[in-house]
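thread: overnight batch results

M.L. [08:02]
morning all. the overnight job finished for the chain we discussed friday. pasting input first so we're all looking at the same thing
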Amino acid sequence: MTRASSEKHTVNDTWGAYRLMSRLATTRAFEVWEVEDSRQHHRFAMKLMQPQWSGNRHWVRSLQQEYFVGHQLKHEQVIETREFGVKDGLAFLVMELFPEPNLKQWMREVDVSKVPFLSHVVETAAESLQYLHSRGWVHRDIKPDNFLVGGEGSVKLIDFTLAKKQPGWLSRMFSSYSKTQGTPSYMSPEQIRNKPQDQRSDIYSFGCVIFELVTGLPPYSGNTANELLTKHLRSPIPSLKLRNPKINESFSQVVQQLLSKQPADRPATMDRVIANLANIDIFVP
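M.L. [08:03]
and the structure it wrote out:
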């Protein structure tokens, strides 16, 4: 759990067979680089712990978990993971290179009401989550940052750090997750309460994402994390049309159902979500 080195990763550093080419993104604990595999001369993305966290077991385990889940997933709308390793106490994960903005960044760059393929973005994002659930996993951190958006609405689901296997009926009765985790603007009520979560928890979070996509803001906000989480638990479900009158009433009703406080009141599966969204215009013509 040491923070040993303050040296920074730089272009042309090598990690095994991979050479760092250009930095794509930076977070608190990780950097994402475009890298070249010297064996095949192919380009990939590498998620690499920042040097100051060398030896930090939490971040090593976090990246190992992301690899463990991601390596089991094979779908065109899910980022492909390739290799996990540790060098000098720093874990790294090699992934498919998809150098596109995440949904949060993309929303800042475009007027979504004028994007002709917006329905395709929603549909492909839903399909990526449907596939994850079909493999038995709950993502537990569905948010705009974890969908990459390419040209003409191609989408890749990323970041499986918090993913857990869906609980069976017995574990729903007797177990809960050891720690409340997630991103407050998108957490389901059961996730906030640290209750067992199945795919309906991700469906709530997906509803928050779609709400933000078409209105520009998440459904709830607060001055503190506790205030925000309390609103998820107790505040009425906000109206999309009050936020954006251009939104089709039928689409608004579908998204509001995703945001139901009780899991039983939401669609049971992403298959049902996709069916409910099919052939519905997002905005009034």
